[in-house]
Amino acid sequence: DMAEPIQQLTRNNSPQERQSIPFTVMQRKEKLGDLLYEKRQYGKAKWACIKMKEKQYEQSICLGFMKLMRYICEQNSSGLYLGITIPIVTIVHTDESRSAVTRAVTVAYYLPEALQEEPPRPFDDDIVIEEWPPTIVYSR
């Protein structure tokens, strides 16, 4: 099922073609010289997002990522490979008391700068294009 998107990604994506999302580092946490995480602020932008709720949140992340890869690899209204931006963001949701992780996750792909004004429409109805305000992300 993922063979074509993976082949497309391999053909069209070398490390120098990956677009890093512009951000400002707000905080870094290190331990014994190793980076544990960064707290980053990303500017206002459009993201392709999918919300998943499988039996385990890890399954939700994998399935959401696979659906986004199909969108990136030609299953969109432009019919073109959109290119990779890094990182792909995963939002892990918690219960109402914020004391436990739920199965629900949102996997999000930052649309490359050239597509910000008019993003290609996804063929998959589960994928939505959202404009996020400036956003705080923890990265590791």
Automatic annotation (TrEMBL):
The record's similarity note reads: Belongs to the HEBP family.
PANTHER family (UniProt xref): HEME-BINDING PROTEIN-RELATED, SOUL PROTEIN
* Alphabetized InterPro entries for the sequence: Reg_factor_effector_dom_sf (IPR011256), SOUL_heme-bd (IPR006917)
Which molecular-function annotation in GO is an example for this chain? heme binding
SUPFAM superfamilies for the chain: Probable bacterial effector-binding domain
Pfam families the record matches? SOUL
Q: Which residues form a coiled coil?
A: none
Protein name from the UniProt record? HEBP1 protein
